[in-house]
Amino acid sequence: MANTKAQAPAVTSRRWAALFFIGLGQLMIILDATVVNIALPSLQRDLGISDGDRQWILTGYTLAFGSLLLLGGRIADYTGRKRAFLVGLLGFTAASALGGAATNFEMLLSARVLQGAFGALLGPSALSLLTVTFTQPRDRAKAFGIWGAISAAGGAVGLLAGGALTDYLDWRWCLYVNIPMALIAAIGGYAVLAESRRAGKARFDIAGVLLVTGGLVAIVYATSQAESAGWGSAKATGLLAAGAVLLAAFALVESRVRQPLLPLRVIADRTRAGAYLSVGLAVIGMFGAFLFMTYYLQIVKGYSPIRTGVAFLPMVTAVLISAGGLATRLLPKLPPRTLIVPGMLISCCGMLWMLTLDTGTGYAGGVLVAQLLLGFGAGMIMPVALNYATHGIDRGDSGVASASFNTAQQIGSSIGTALLNTIATSATVDYLASHGSGPAIARQAMVEGFGAASVWAAGIIAAGALIIAVLMNAPRPGHHDAAEGTESTEPLLVPA
Asked: What is the pTM for the complete model shown?
C-alpha cells in the first residue's frame, strides 16, 4: 500500500489507456440495455415467447442491474474497484454466453438477470475508477465528456449492432458479441488499471438489499400487470402499495444501520440528487422511444432489422455532437441546470413529435425528427449529470455515488419500459375494440398506442425539468470546484 500522489492513477501516463478499457466495459453495459430490442421480434418467434412476457427480456436485465447497483458500489469500494471491475467483466461474459445458447424463455430470462447482476458490479466499479483516475479539472472534463458520449450514444449503437447481427447472423449474436469485448477490456484493464479501495472493514447491508430489490420488483411487476388486470385491480394496487412500503422501510433502515447500502449523505446534496433524478426521468423517454421506434419501423413500416439499425444512426450523430461538441465545452463554464433543463425540454419535444407518426408518415418527417431531438437532448444531459453525480463526494463514497447514478438510469429504464409498454398496449387494445380488426387497423392501433405512451413520457420529462430547475442549485464551476476534482487523502493500492 502506498499513499503518494506520484503513484496515483490520475497522474500516470496510462490514464487515457485506462479510460479506453473502462469505457469498453461501460459500452457493454449500455449496449446490452438496447441491443436485444431490435432482435425482440426474431427471438420472440424463435423461442415462442408471448406478447405479455417479451418485455421481461428487457426489464429482467435492467431491474436486476438497477436493484443491485448500490450493493455493487459498496463491494467495489471495499473489496477493490479494479478487482470488482474484472470480476464483473468475466461474470457478464459467462451470462452472455448462456443467453446466446438459450433454448427457451426461462433460460434466456435467467441469463438476462445474471447479466444485470454482474453489470451491477461492473457499472459502479467502472465509473468510480474513472472518478479516482481523473482528478485534474481539464482532464476530468474531457474524460467525462467522452464517458457521457459513450453512455448516451451506446443505446442507439446497440440498436444498430442488433440490426446487423440479427440480419446477417442470428439474434443470439446480440449476446455473443459481449464475449470478445469483455475479454479485451479484462486483459487491458488488468494490465493498466491501478487498484484502489476504501480503508476499513466492509459490512454489507443485506437488509437494505432485500428491501430495495423487493420494493423495485413489486413496482415494476405491478406496472407490467396493470394492462391485463387494470390499474385499479387489487393485484396492481396491492403490489404498488407493497413496493412503496418496502422502499419506505429501506429508507428507514438506511438511516439507522452502521454502514448503509445508500448513505443518506450521498443523496442529501441537492446537486447530486438533481443529477440522479435528471437521468432517471430522461431515460424513461429515451428507452421508451427505442422500443416504440423499433416496432414502428419493423412492424408498421416493414423495415428489416439492419435497415432499422441504420435508421437510428442520426440519433447517434446528434448525441455525439451534443455531448462531445457542446456539453463538454460548456460543462466547466455553466451551472449544471442551465444544460440539463434545456436538454430535458428538447427530449420532451422529441417524445411529443412521436404524435405526428402515422402508418403513412415518411422517415424524414417523422422518426428522423424525433431521433434528432431526443439525441441532442440526451447529449446535453448525460455528461453533466455524470460529472455532478460525484459532486463534492468523498473518494471513499465514489463507488456508491457512481452506483446511485447507474441505479437511477436502470430503474428509470425498467419502470419506463414497463409503464409505457402498458400504456401503449392498453391504448392499442382500446383502439381495436372500437375500430374492429384487420392488418391496416392493427398497424394504426399500434401507432395510436405509441402516441398515447409518448404523451405520458413527455409529461414526465417536462415535470422533471421543472423539478431540476428548482432543485439543482450548484453555481457555475469555479477554478477549484470540488466537482472538477480535488485531491483525496484516501490511500490507493497500486501495483508493485
From this structure: 0.76
